[in-house]
Amino acid sequence: xxxxxxxxxxxxxxxxxxxxxxxxxxxxxxxxxxxxxxxxxxxxxxxxxxxxxxxxxxxxxxxxxxxxxxxxxxxxxxxxxxxxxxxxxxxxxxxxxxxxxxxxxxxxxxxxxxxxxxxxxxxxxxxxxxxxxxxxxxxxxxxxxxxxxxxxxxxxxxxxxxxxxxxxxxxxxxxxxxxxxxxxxxxxxxxxxxxxxxxxxxxxxxxxxxxxxxxxxxxxxxxxxxxxxxxxxxxxxxxxxxxxxxxxxxxxxxxxxxxxxxxxxxxxxxxxxxxxxxxxxxxxxxxxxxxxxxxxxxxxxxxxxxxxxxxxxxxxxxxxxxxxxxxxxxxxxxxxxxxxxxxxxxxxxxxxxxxxxxxxxxxxxxxxxxxxxxxxxxxxxxxxxxxxxxxxxxxxxxxxxxxxxxxxxxxxxxxx
Length: 416
Fold this sequence. Notes:
Elements lengths: L6 H7 L36 H14 L2 E2 L2 H8 L8 E2 L15 E2 H14 L3 H13 L17 H13 L14 H7 L26 H12 L24 H16 L6 E3 L6 E2 L1 H14 L2 H14 L1 H7 L1 H14 L11 H6 L7 E2 L4 H15 L24 H4 L5 E3 L1
Antiparallel strand pairs: 1-6, 2-3, 4-5, 4-7
Helix pairs in contact: 2-4, 2-13, 4-5, 4-6, 6-8, 8-9, 8-10, 9-10, 10-11, 10-13, 11-13, 12-13
């Protein structure tokens, strides 16, 4: 779940993609005025990731038994446009959204997942889901912005939002196509280089290039899982099977096989910007842990999880709330304790980046419900009529913030 920034947002903002963070990223820029909006988590310029990082922060808090501050939730709901859509950030919420404001599917879907988890926001999530359905592409998927070509990350995060809102993603169709149909077309065939992985989008010639960020997102999307999920039923080491690509669960296994191979040697994914040396990609590695665990590849998730516990502290501290949230999701998916993660209390560190929470409890009904739903799903057979219970994706982080699946390496060089 690195912070996935869309290629469009990246080009427009000329910022570094979230997941492609150097060993220790450069310090993100403060807001131009030096002032952070009241209720917002983090201290960096929210222009490109305000809604994204707030959504992940609130969701991570809810998952760990923390009741966020009212003003933190109010900040997020106040960002919504009358249409139901969200932009990455609205500096002046007193001004109505207009055609000049770039709303996007990733920010909107992330907000839906967070608000649905918090509960009591049916009006906001209902409007957002209606808007998301209205901008679905004819191939069943979604692009980062309305009308943009479908990509694996956006399609997955929207599928998660739909499921979080109580809908069946496989039943949400445009021209007879569902999100699953879009993901099928973005899956690299097993007999090709990077077989089993998902591509962010096809290239100009229609070719598919394996993308770790898109693959982590695609695995969760195919499984119908969201940012917050527990490990699936333990399964044998995943392998890529061309015949299995006909079903969502088969696509997920194929994607997990690619991720397992990518982290097998050193325990982490790598990413590099043009002209720069390869660097560990903390955000995408955390996303890979979640995806592998969700697929039931818990043995394959153990090594990258251990690597994160040992090496992610400096990255998380520098990158901020979205990074802490991403690590919390990885810990939750594998049954690790986010309050004792490599000697650090991720929950306390996240809480310290924003308004003091209202309360902290041992567990939340939401987390318990999610675990129960996962357990029920594991009992079902793999015939795959569609997605299960929710999830994924990604968007964008300002230079140096990484949130794995979500927005990171779209158009960036990624290597195992």
